[in-house]
Design a protein that fits this description.
- By secondary structure, the chain is of the alpha+beta class.
- It has a single domain, classed as Jelly Rolls (Sandwich).
- The protein is about 20% helix and about 35% strand.
- It contains four helices and seven strands.
- The strands form two sheets. It has a four-stranded antiparallel beta sheet, with no helix packed on it. The chain has a three-stranded antiparallel beta sheet with strand order 2-6-4, with helices on one face.
Length: about 170
């Protein structure tokens, strides 16, 4: 899954990851979600803090999109705690770069039918003069099932996304 977006200062973008049932089905086995973020901010060469914009992402689990959105509106920088179980690289370790990646391993389905969200947040440096501009970025998400080779996650995710699009189209009419 890939998103190319633009984000304003002090704004979160929340993406609900369309994880199909085949990703969670089948008991205990290793499943992975890998997320990568890339952006190219304006810079100043005369400052120690040279980047005008800082972007980072968090992977969170919650019951609904509204729950995540409200948490990040109340506290833009921290929002809700990032999922740390099975995480390869922490947010603090990766957020200093303009190319960021991390991977989460899951052995079993989430409790309480929780959903998985990727949240991108932007914060400009105090010296920046372009606070109202939008910062372009790209976010990529890769799903992998390391122990069940016969699962076609790509086809399942595509079918789920097409079903969502059809539902939205019907709701507009």
């Amino acid at each position: 899954m890939l998103a190319e977006e633009q984000i304003g200062n002090d704004q979160p973008h929340v993406f609900e990851l369309p994880l199909p049932e085949s990703f969670w089905a089948g008991g205990r086995r290793t499943r992975e979600i890998t997320i990568a973020l890339a952006y190219s901010p304006s810079v100043r060469t005369t400052r120690l803090d040279y980047r005008m914009s800082k972007l980072w992402f968090s992977l969170v689990t919650a019951g609904s999109l509204d729950e995540v959105t409200q948490a990040f509106r109340r506290n833009r920088e921290h929002g809700m705690g990032e999922r740390s179980n099975g995480r390869w690289l922490s947010n603090d370790a990766r957020k200093n770069g303009t190319l960021q990646v991390s991977r989460w391993s899951f052995k079993q389905a989430l409790a309480n039918s929780d959903k998985v969200f990727a949240v991108v947040t932007r914060q400009d440096s105090p010296w920046s003069n372009g606070r109202d501009g939008e910062e372009p970025y790209a976010l990529a998400v890769v799903l992998a099932d390391r122990e069940q080779a016969n699962v076609n996650l790509y086809a399942d995710v595509r079918a789920a996304l097409e079903a969502r699009a059809q539902t939205r189209a019907r709701a507009r009419v």
